[in-house]
Please model this.
Amino acid sequence: MVSLTLACSAVAQPIIRNTANGLEATENGVHLQITALQDDKLRIREWRVSAPEDASWAVLPGSRTSLVDVTEDQSGFHTDKLAIEVKDGLHLVIRDKQGHILQEDSGPVQWRGDAFHVYKTRGENEHFFGLGDKPGPLDRSGQTFTLWNTDSFGWQESTDPIYKSIPFFIDVKDGRSFGVFFDNTWRTSFDFGHENDQEYNFGSQGGPIDYYFLYGPDPKDVIKGYAWLTGTASLPPLWSFGFQQSRYTYTPESQLMDVAAHLRRDKIPADALWLDIDFQKNNMPFTVDEQRFPKFPEMVNKLADDHFHLVVIADTHIAEKPNTDYLPYDTGMAGDHFVKNPDGTTYVGTVWPGPSVFPDYTQARTRQWFGTLYKDFVADGVAGFWNDMNEPAVFRYPSKTMPLETQHHIDEPGFLKRTASQREIHNIYGLLNSKATYDGVLKLRPNERPYVMTRATYAGGQRYAVTWTGDNSSTWNHLRMTIPQLTNLGLSGFSFAGADVGGFAGSPPADLLTKWLEVAAFQPIDRDHSAKGTRMHEPWVDGPEQEALRKRYIEERYRLLPYLYTVAEETSRNGMPMMRPLFVEFPHATADGNPMDLLTGGAEYMLGPSLLIAPNPSPEEVAEYELHLPPGIWYDYWTGKPAGSADTLKARDAEVRDALLQQQRIMLKPDLATVPVFVRGGAILPLQPLVQSTDETPQGPLTLRVYVPRAGEVCQGDVYTDDGHSLNYRSGQFYRLHISCTTKQDDTLSIEFKAPEGIYQPWFKQIRVEVTGQAHVPSHATINGRTTTIQSNHGVVSVTIPLPNAESRLTMQ
Model:
């Protein structure tokens, strides 16, 4: 029988010892340590008996050991932004400088043996976001979740857990935001007010109480803080933002080549093709079936000549094939690189190739060995690698993974050398598989950006891989769920994410596939993928009328590539996700401080700071639906016409602002041919001429589409570019141009170009400035005081200027 032990009681008062960077408190044998990493970031640890090992697979070493001086208080300490108080029972209260309670314990930690739960009070207007791609609503309030990486084929809205464990959430309460990262790799759980609507809790079956408090007060501050803590996503190659076509599996070789030829013949822009496991010999990772793909290297080169990048799957397991010249197994056994049973023998589980063994990635030397297995594929010119089945998935058991008693031998800088069970390592197995792949490919192809996609991962895994939402289904509901999944992934560090377009399991009807391809054109990864035995998913499969609609949206994605890539580069610098809930850009849009997304049900989202995408929240329905535009001026992306007239930015009275916000509700009629897209007034949107792949240099100028704000307000935008494939941008080989504009009461529009940053020469030599939303058609324009020509075509006013190489000003009136 397991007994319940409370961590502390009110019998004794805590003994508090202040330190230069926080405090340590002890009560009834329980120890609490709070460290200020920065003025708005805290690390909180709690333990019985002895402190656990101070190490992390997720947190960057420099962030974990960062320190800032604090000022001692009577019952705690304060920084420049936070006040921390510890009461009897080690009761922790965190306030902002204005005295608002941000987080407060609702009771002591509860222990059951090695398992524990941490309890916090929950307010009426408290909302929770994050935890990666858990199915269900955008707001996690009132729900419970388990974090345990699980192979969940055909998951549905109520399925939990699925593939990833990202124990990070953002708390939004009364217009103030903070984040919590619970750094525990064991099986963890989160309850956001399901059991008791007055509190929320998180806990684990083992491991440490070690969590980080990241204050805002705005959501962007929290997101940047999490990126500071766990790292930013690596900037992927430019081609990965193009359209990608996949299937389980294009085989034989002739079928793959036919798909490539069809894309080019129909002039459907595309950049990548994917191969699932059937291209391998007997499903054995790091092999090629020479009967189905008899000229694999020549095929890769031919695809490259036609501007296709090939991505191949490389599952984490290694087939147990002794005495067959299967080098991954032979070299892995010789180097003692595989996970063990408790008795020291090599663990064997059944996966796609049959009996298989599993690399022990907790050893740095094993990850180095695993990275060498990509040598032949890299030499053949394969562009990217797909780490699947890395929960790790095993077919033999109902748990779909290896037994919890299997053994890993940690041998990693910063960690104690020791043996750990699958209970502790399971949730980071996919993360370490990604790291092994990323580091290995980078070593084989120095200075080229590795492209790795992973199914399973943990916090911090964004440093090594992009991801997708796993084996979804070909249903309208799964199309709907994709948006909150991807936005929550973005909030959780994984900005570069997508879903299997059209749904993996099942065969989508024509209209569903069309709508999914349309919506996915405005998401970070646009990969059309389908399961074996389903009908084909390619854009042309349902005839010319459907193909024309699908092609139109893929083409629009390619026109938007300068904007997408600029937003992606920001992600790689500060963690801001490409796909964002509305509350990230508009945290104070409502008078009560609740996220605006609660009005939309999470169906609308921002793509970068400037574009609002508003697909039907019930995509299979034909009835009109409400669009909720945030405060400010908005323009229809497709027509350039104003979409909302409510002016709320200057409304200081809450009731007035809410009344104005109500006026921003617009009724939209669903249309198969249309995804409503809106542009924020004051945005400057970079676009390019249409190309068939990112290898093709656009012909003509870069277009900067200026969406005029109100008189006296500033508009701004950026354009970023580099060579799209190497790491040279890290040493200044990039081009960044910042543009701003102001309007005056006389409708004079002044556009200022800052001096470009970086030494890279962009593909464009001219800039075409288009103006949308100006009250009257300008008749005169000057660039740095010199008169230039104004062009007008179908109501679009534009000026074409040489590429600025220094500060410049364009004036139109």
